[in-house]
Amino acid sequence: MSTTPHDALFKAAFSQVEHAAEELRHVLPPELLARMDLGSLSLEAGSFVDEALRERHTDLLFRVRLGGRDARIYILFEHQSTPDPWMPLRLLGYMLRIWDGCVADGATRLPVVIPVVLHHSDTGWHAPTCFEALFDLPPGAAEFTPHFCFALDDLSTESEAALHARAASAFTRLVLSALQQTRSDRDLGQLMLGWQGLFRELRQAPDGARALWLVLRYLYEVRGAEEFASIRTVAREINQQSEDLMQTMADYLESKGMARGRRELLLRLLQRRFGALPARAGEQVMAGDDAEIDRWSDRLLEASSLDDIFT
Question: What is the pTM of this model?
């Protein structure tokens, strides 16, 4: 389960194989790509990230044909203020879990696992990208030490122009730009003006409306309702896209307002019924999805305790 808006945007974009393939074409070596059948790329179920790390890591696992053989591509998205110096060790643990799953499914040979890290931080990546770099190896010990590296796409070091020029769809480029720039100190309206070319391209794309909705949701969650609402005037400056963008923003603000109103109403009713609520109950209601709010509201009339609501 995604625990941050960064996770949600990453998974919404890159769980689609066509957008994952665009990222892989950028980050993997050409000689490896030449042997890889990206047309066979398919998403695998499950996550391998430890519970304690889910606030800063999220992941996707893909199956692909490599040199005529079955292989896996493991993409880890890391979003935190500093790079993780133990990333190769963490990746090794995740790779072992992938291989354990293959053995449990009856594999007689292990598939190649290609680890990819998509990273964004305040400082950029300055930590090892190869496992053996974690050791102070004495002479003769290297052959007994596991060797692997991971492919790194460090958004922190990319210029805005370089991201916009990538060989990828407008959706992928806008998502990467949003992940890179939305947490910065730059004014949100100015950021959106810098994305106006991408907005125009999205208008022509089959998935353009959905892509725009996903990015607007991300902006709302990261920057907050007040700043999000204030940038509606910026949309008028975006040629050919202004009316569509303004309407999409208005629709999103309305939907967020309605959703928040439902949650606040349920909290008031719970307080009337059961008195002062524990903090965890309030947090659970405000984080609940629409289906959960419906279910908890239906239980309110017959519940004798809070446990009856949430179990």
Answer: 0.75
